[in-house]
Write a structure and sequence with these properties.
single chain, about 190 residues, mainly alpha
């Protein structure tokens, strides 16, 4: 082999090695880029799933808060109205108030309310029912003229009013705290 052949073979080998090195480097770079892309896509997918989950959780929490607010407000309004109507009832002027809707509203509170809210709502409902019974018994003993029994029923009515007002106040305080609402404060 002469010098030219050796130079040509040497250049050929050098070219082949450079070509192999170039292809190897390009392949390695492509592999690394592909791996980084797959990792980025996987991370983006996880981030999107986490964000979707957080959004769903936040929307559910808002929905539940709204449901609680509606249930609490409807129950409290009905219980307060009934209690006041029962205790201010005048037989000749007003039809007797109906307590049929109160158990339905209490059921909504029981379904979505906190344990403390349910406990207070149960107590309020019990006091509305007890006042109703007290009203019926009072009307009966007014007709019979039993003054002693009427005095006992009046005393019971006073106790029921005091206890109901206490439960109602506690219910409102709890609901405000639970829903994150602030009580109105006067400047006085």
């Amino acid at each position: 082999m002469d010098q030219q052949t050796l130079t040509l073979v040497s250049q050929l080998i050098t070219g082949a090695v450079a070509l192999i090195a170039g292809l190897g480097g390009a392949s390695l770079t492509a592999y690394i880029n592909r791996r980084n892309t797959l990792d980025s896509l996987a991370a983006a997918r996880l981030t999107a799933e986490e964000q979707w989950t957080r959004t769903q959780d936040r929307e559910h929490a808002i929905w539940l808060r709204d449901q609680k607010q509606e249930a609490y407000a409807a129950f409290h309004s009905e219980a307060e109205t009934l209690f006041r109507k029962i205790n201010g009832y005048v037989p000749d002027e007003d039809p007797p108030p109906s307590i049929d809707n109160l158990p339905v509203l209490l059921g909504r509170v029981r379904l979505i309310g906190s344990l403390e809210a349910v406990t207070l709502a149960n107590a309020m409902s019990m006091h509305v029912n007890s006042s109703w019974v007290n009203l019926v018994q009072t009307r009966f003993f007014q007709q019979t003229g039993n003054k002693e029994k009427l005095d006992e029923l009046w005393e019971l009515g006073q106790q029921l009013r005091t206890q109901f007002d206490s439960y109602s106040t506690k219910f409102l305080e709890l609901v405000r705290k639970e829903l994150g609402a602030q009580a109105f404060q006067s400047d006085a």
